[in-house]
Amino acid sequence: MSKRDELIEKYAADVKDKFGETPDMNLLTKVAIGLGPAIYNLDASKVSGSDDKELETVKNNFLIKKLGLSDSPDLMNAINSVIDKYGRSDRNKHRAVIYYMLAKHFGKESIYN
């Protein structure tokens, strides 16, 4: 099993355990591939739920630039909702899982087709 496959399995377990959902493995794989080498970097592969600057980066670089959403308070509300469900105190919030959940939240799975 490749390193990427191992990471995707870990992400799938988080989706199941933290969000109580059966992950769409095809979408989760595409989100992980879309993150490129960042998934292998310990710091870049995680999202800090308490760092406002990092949450702004998720909003600007992923929700607005990648998913093509318009800036509104709904974006930060969605990010905070996903972070809360993941567990704010959990220090290992994987970026791929956050992006996957946000893509599903906004119904933007088609971006990865």
Characterization of the model:
With 113 residues, this protein is mainly alpha-helical. It has one domain (3-112): Jann4075-like (Recoverin, domain 1, Orthogonal Bundle). It is 59% helix and 0% strand. It has five helices and no strands. The longest helix has 17 residues, at 3-19. The chain is globular. The mean pLDDT is 96.
How can the largest sheet be summarized? none
* Domains, number: 1
Mean pLDDT: 96
Q: Please tell me what the overall shape is.
A: globular
User: How far from one another are the termini?
Assistant: 24 Å
Number of helices: 5
Under CATH at level 1, the class stands as Mainly Alpha
Question: Could you write a compact summary of the structure shown?
Answer:
The chain is mostly helical. It is built from 5 helices and no strands.
